[in-house]
Amino acid sequence: MSDAPSNAPPRDEIARPEIVNAGWINAIRIVLQAVTVACVVAFTMLICMQVFYRYVLNSSLIWSEEVVRFLLLWTVMLGSAIATDKGAHIILNPLDEHLGPGGRRIRAAVAELCTIAFCSVLFWTGCQFIARTKNMTSSAADIPMYYVYLSMPVGAMLIAFFATIHILAGTVHHIDPMDDRS
Fold first, then answer.
1. Residue 144, phi then psi, degrees to nearest 5
2. CA 132 vs CA 117, 119, 123, 128, 144: distances in Å
3. Distance CA 20, CA 85 (A)
4. Which of 167, 174, 170, 161 is nearest to 16 (CA)?
5. 3-class SS of residue 160
6. Burial class (CB in 10 A: 0-12, 13-18, 19+), 111
7. Is the pLDDT of residue 84 over 80?
8. What span, in angstroms and rounded, lies between the C-alpha atoms of 109 and 114?
9. Which of 3, 43, 103, 142 sits at 20 to 30 Å (Cα–Cα) from 36?
10. Burial class (CB in 10 A: 0-12, 13-18, 19+), 48
């Protein structure tokens, strides 16, 4: 049951979903999801290899734990961008029951603007980490650390990108677990 007044314009008149569903944006989504799944598969396989080597072969892969940590960092950053696009981040919305549809849209847009501001700081900090660690490598896997820290600005940029797209399209949304009440 909707609490929106009957004279409110339908959601389709407010939103411009064609922006969100543009072909090049969908291509970014597909690539992002594929890379995220590849990271999850890779670190799952590495963890299984760690267990096999340790308990079956009584040996150890000294580099695998480090690589798993780095893949997990990339997965979190890329997965956060996917969650931003789907509106799946956890949100506290105690004001929503006191706001009308317009007020909820404004609250959601302000929250997305705060997300973009945070992503700007994260982007800047990630770039500083990259600059400071450009000549460093990880101790066990010998991976250049700028590849690891690159996850911060890339993830921040993607999160801000999806937040901006949804603000411009008027499709800022968040999944509300209370909507599934029976």
1. -60, 130
2. 23, 20, 14, 6, 12
3. 9
4. 170
5. helix
6. middle
7. yes
8. 9
9. 142
10. exposed
**Two tokens at 29?**
């989504």
64, 46 in Cβ contact below 8 A? yes
DSSP 126: H
> Alpha-carbon distance 8 to 48, whole Å?
54
Q: What is the mean pLDDT of residues 36-56?
A: 93
Q: How far is CA 42 from CA 69, 81, 114, in A?
A: 11, 19, 33
Alpha-carbon distance of 116 to 160, in angstroms, equals 5
Burial (CB < 10 A; 0-12, 13-18, 19+), residue 125, is: middle
Closest CA to 80 of 20, 142, 11, 154: 154
Our measurement of the distance from residue 123's CA atom to the centroid of its chain's CA atoms, rounded to an integer in Å, reads: 14
Token reading at 123: 């982007």
Mean pLDDT of 39-44: 95
pLDDT per residue over 96-106, tens digit each? 778 787 787 78
CA separation for the pair 32, 82 (Å, rounded): 8
Instruction: Please state whether 120 falls in left (phi above 0), alpha (psi between -120 and 50) or beta.
Output: alpha
Q: Is the pTM of this model over 0.70?
A: yes
Q: What's at 12, amino acid-wise?
A: D
On whether the CB atoms of residues 169 and 17 are closer than 8 A, the answer is: yes
